[in-house]
Amino acid sequence: MRFRFGVYLFDTGQAQLSGPAGPIALRPMTLKLLQALIEAAPDLVSTDELLDRVWGRQAVAPGVVAQSVRELRKALQDSALQPSYIETRHRLGYRFIAPLQREDSPPSSTELLAADAPTPVAATPRRASRSMAGLGGLALLLTAALLLTWWQPWSDGPTSDSGSFYPIDVVQAGTPADGEAQQWFHQALTALREQRLERASELLDRALAREPHSPALLGTMAAVQAEHGEIARARSLADAALAAAGSLPRAEQLRIEGVTAALYYRWGDAIDRFQAVFQLNPGDVTAGFALFRAQLNAGRGDDAERTLEDLAALPAAILQPTQLSLARARLASLRGRLSDRLALAELALAQSEDPRQAAEARLEQIAAQIALGQPTAARTSLDALNQTLAQTAWPAGEIKQQLLEGHWQREVGKPALALAHYERAAAAAEALGDARSRATARRESAFAQVLLGEVDQAVAVTGEMLAEQGERGDLREQAASLNVRSLAQQRAGDPAAAQVSVERALDLYTQTGDRAGQAGARNSLGMLYARQGRGDEALAQFEEALQVFRATGNRRGAAVALGNIAAAHGSAGRGAAARSANETALAEFRAVDAALDVARLQFNLALQDRRTGALIQAEARLREALDGFRQAQAGARVVVASTTLADLLLQRAEPTEASALLSDISLADVPPEQQASLLAMRGRLAMAIGDYAAAGTALSDAMSLRQQAGLDAWARMSEFELAELDARQQRWTEAELTLRPLRRAMLDDGEALDAANAGALLAAVLQAQQRLADAAGLLDDLEATAAKDALLGLRIDLVRAQQHPADRDAALAEVAQRAREMGFERIALQAERLRPSPAGAEAAEELQRRGLDPGSERLAW
Question: What are phi and psi of 373, to 5 degrees?
Answer without folding.
Answer: 75, 40
